[in-house]
Automatic annotation (TrEMBL):
Protein name per UniProt: Receptor ligand binding region domain-containing protein
Keywords associated with the record: Membrane, Transmembrane, Transmembrane helix
Entry keyword Zinc: no
Domain Receptor ligand binding region: 2-219
Cell compartments where the protein resides: Membrane
Main location: membrane
Organism: Dictyocaulus viviparus
GO CC terms, sorted: membrane
Pfam families (UniProt xref): ANF_receptor
Keyword Acyltransferase recorded: no
Length: 242
């Protein structure tokens, strides 16, 4: 998980991890359990776990609990819902939790999409608000949309290349439940593995011999002077198999 490596670079020795759904714990497993690092001298970072209330009307009370009882100022928030991030930041601002010593990391890679809302409504945030950004296009778009468009591009380019080297290559309708097989399937897979696309929506696209995408780069971003700016780059791995 890219956020786990990002946290190691920050060298936090403790933090509060807030998540939205029980199913999120599967995605967060590397961040929760893989916290041993030379940065900590072989010791494990202290992590407190708390689940968000189901009703966003209770977010203010939840954040008061974080502020007054947990007293944790390093906070990681995991949610796939960009509206949830907006609401949490709004409530945190009202409780003066967007000033030092508070620091936030959001795992949602669509965090930059909130820029317009934050600038128009709230102005300057004095606490650290950081995250990771995968999409490289300008203007920015949702990560899921960018990855979907790239998947279509990969399939289309592979089919184009196959048509050039194999005239009798034909698509075939198959039923997966019936365990049908596609004779030209391995050829298609090989064509995908040989693709090299530079400067796509999420960066360069290429695959290893197992069909896993290589060297995906996330940008580390932070909100400085009322706008998100790139803080650092690094190679973080996510799995995309064809």
């Amino acid at each position: 998980m890219a956020v786990s490596e990002f946290l190691e670079n920050l060298r936090w020795t403790s933090f509060l991890l807030i998540y939205q759904h029980d199913s999120d714990l599967v995605d967060l497993a590397p961040l929760i359990y893989d916290r041993r690092s030379s940065h900590y001298g072989g010791s494990q970072a202290a992590i407190k776990l708390r689940k968000l209330p189901n009703n966003n009307d209770n977010y203010e009370a939840f954040l008061r609990y974080v502020k007054n009882h947990l007293q944790q100022t390093n906070i990681v928030i995991h949610t796939n819902n960009i509206s949830t991030l907006y609401t949490l930041l709004q409530e945190a601002k009202n409780l003066n939790m967007t000033e030092p010593p508070y620091s936030y990391i959001f795992t949602n890679t669509d965090l930059p999409l909130l820029e317009g809302f934050l600038s128009n409504v709230y102005g300057v945030f004095y606490s650290n608000i950081t995250g990771l950004q995968l999409v490289k296009s300008n203007p920015i778009m949702k990560t899921t949309l960018a990855l979907t468009l790239e998947a279509i591009w990969v399939a289309g380019m592979a089919l184009r290349d196959l048509k050039e080297i194999k005239d009798d290559f034909q698509p075939v309708a198959i039923l997966c439940d019936a365990k049908d097989s596609w004779i030209d399937g391995p050829i298609m897979n090989n064509a995908i593995r040989q693709l090299h696309g530079r400067n796509q929506l999420t960066g360069d696209i290429q695959f290893d011999e197992r069909g896993e995408r290589e060297n995906i780069i996330y940008y580390g971003i932070g909100r400085i002077n009322s706008q998100f700016v790139q803080e650092q780059t690094g190679f973080y791995y996510i799995q995309m198999i064809f």
